[in-house]
Amino acid sequence: MSLKGFTQSDFDVFTIEGLDERMEAIKTRIQPTFKSLGEQLTHDLSILLGNEMYLHIAKHARRTVNPPKDTWMAICHDKRGYKKHPHFQLGLFDDHVFIWFALIYEAPNKTAIAHSLLDNLNLITDLPANFVISLDHMKKDATPLAEKSKEDVKADLQRLRDVKKAEFLVGRHLQPNDPILKDGQALANFTRETYEQLLPLYRLSMS
Fold first, then answer.
1. Which residues does 172 contact at the CB level (< 8 Å), separation at least 6?
2. Domain range summary for the chain, segments of one domain joined by +
């Protein structure tokens, strides 16, 4: 069976009014794509890392009023949950797809990871210039690596080390009109290639 990518109708889900209505559209339109892409990517990461990785698809279970502004899948080594661990993401807002290596505020060992990353700054600064950095997984904003100096990246990691709610995500964005998104296998390949370039960060964060 060929893999499905994302079309404009998937991005349009985020214009649907009402929590129940939007959640229904996420479940029927987007989550099946996450499942098929995610199973392949989880398999690939398990082989690349030499240990079992698990797929988690966002349930948005805590929401009672406001419909989600984005949705995602995550891959990590823990079958029970991903938020407390370094993990990989693939997801979408209404105007882009994001592909991340993510350290979010719930990770208890953020401080130690930030120290390790500060000692190995080149693992981030040597990434391709079209990679982007975000400091908040709930916001769309991200800054291209090309626009950040070494000192900027250092400051981002110091913030991750010192601020309890700080986050650090690095990866790539794709715009809705990018031809890669229409072809599920091309999207899986692009995502895997992105993850492969981020594996040194993941390995360091897990050590």
1. 98, 99, 130, 131, 132, 190, 194
2. 8-206
